[in-house]
Amino acid sequence: MLLAIDCGNTNTVFSIWDGEKFLATWRTATMHQRTADQYYVWLTTLMNLTGVNVDIDEVIVSTTVPRVVFNLRVFADRYFGCRPLVVGKPECRLPVDVRVDAGTQVGPDRLVNTVAGYDLHGGDLIVVDFGTATTFDVVAADGAYIGGVIAPGVNLSLEALHLAAAALPHVDVTRPEKVVGTNTVECMQSGVFWGYVGLIGGICSKIREERDRPMKVIATGGLAPLFQQGDTLFDAFEDNLTMHGLTVINKYNKDNPAS
Ligand SMILES: Nc1ncnc2c1ncn2[C@@H]1O[C@H](COP(=O)(O)OP(=O)(O)OP(=O)(O)O)[C@@H](O)[C@H]1O
Ligand SMILES: CC(C)(CO)[C@@H](O)C(=O)NCCC(=O)O
Ligand SMILES: [K+]
């Protein structure tokens, strides 16, 4: 059984994949100090609580936080007797080309998202992920990763306003009915929500213009459904895109062992 771990700057998600479907998914805040033993206690508690009694013998990790890798390696080795595949490390091969400037360390989550997007929807794709950052990643016709866009995350933008301006409160993102707010909270929500609608639409049309071809837009991440409502920003929404990509990459590495 495969344990797939997607560690972002804010949250870390663990999913168990039986080769055909995910049996369970659990989320915890990312903390680089968390030890192998802490991961194990947390995971086995949840497995027991939900009656998921399976043997894990493979682990794959994508992390945007390099410091968690050491403890996750110890976790896989100590408790599951395996060496984890870590996306972005030389021993983890990708089923697609990566065509970016030499020396660029593309975020593993972005690579995994494009592998998943290509697997599900084919090439000529823009993958938008609403995480800590909002990323746009471009997949060529042949599935290659050819670059993208990094914008501040939606929650990060709201938090930055609150932190930088003494009179601006902490607010949660929502979809305001009107653009013109009549109180501080509405004004902030409008700026972020409608600002993002414009940003997403604008960046996708600029990418299409630059590529000079139709491109399908796939959205993922916690806030994607909020932006999906009513607006024609995305062609498809994928709930579990990063996890799906991890299973594709794991299978590719098993089917194509290093010679
Ligand atoms: N309507 C909503 N309003 C505010 N936050 C939301 C809403 N729906 C989902 N979320 C948030 O989305 C987040 C899940 O998003 P996702 O896993 O894509 O990114 P993340 O964990 O925040 O970032 P990263 O992957 O970079 O760590 C959760 O933290 C959840 O609180
Ligand atoms: C952009 C984020 C933070 C999005 O999670 C991550 O993919 C990352 O840390 N990337 C490294 C830089 C890059 O992707 O070019
Ligand atoms: K994410």
Automatic annotation (TrEMBL):
Subcellular location: Cytoplasm
CC cofactor: K(+); NH4(+)
Family to which this protein belongs: Belongs to the type III pantothenate kinase family.
Subunit note: Homodimer.
Keyword Lipid biosynthesis: no
Entry binding sites for K(+): 129
Listed GO CC annotations: cytoplasm
Broad class of where this protein is predominantly found: cytoplasm
Enzyme class, UniProt record, top EC level: transferase
Gene label: coaX
Enzyme Commission no: 2.7.1.33
Protein name: Type III pantothenate kinase
Pathway field: Cofactor biosynthesis; coenzyme A biosynthesis; CoA from (R)-pantothenate: step 1/5
GO terms under biological process: coenzyme A biosynthetic process
Binding site for substrate: 107-110, 184
Active site, renumbered: 109
Cofactor binding summary note: A monovalent cation. Ammonium or potassium.
Any one GO molecular function term: metal ion binding
InterPro entries: ATPase_NBD, Type_III_PanK
Catalytic activity: (R)-pantothenate + ATP = (R)-4'-phosphopantothenate + ADP + H(+)
Pfam families found in the cross-reference section: Pan_kinase (PF03309)
Biological function: Catalyzes the phosphorylation of pantothenate (Pan), the first step in CoA biosynthesis.
Alphabetical UniProt keywords: ATP-binding, Coenzyme A biosynthesis, Cytoplasm, Kinase, Metal-binding, Nucleotide-binding, Potassium, Transferase
Keyword DNA-binding listed: no
Residues that, per the record, bind ATP: 6-13, 132
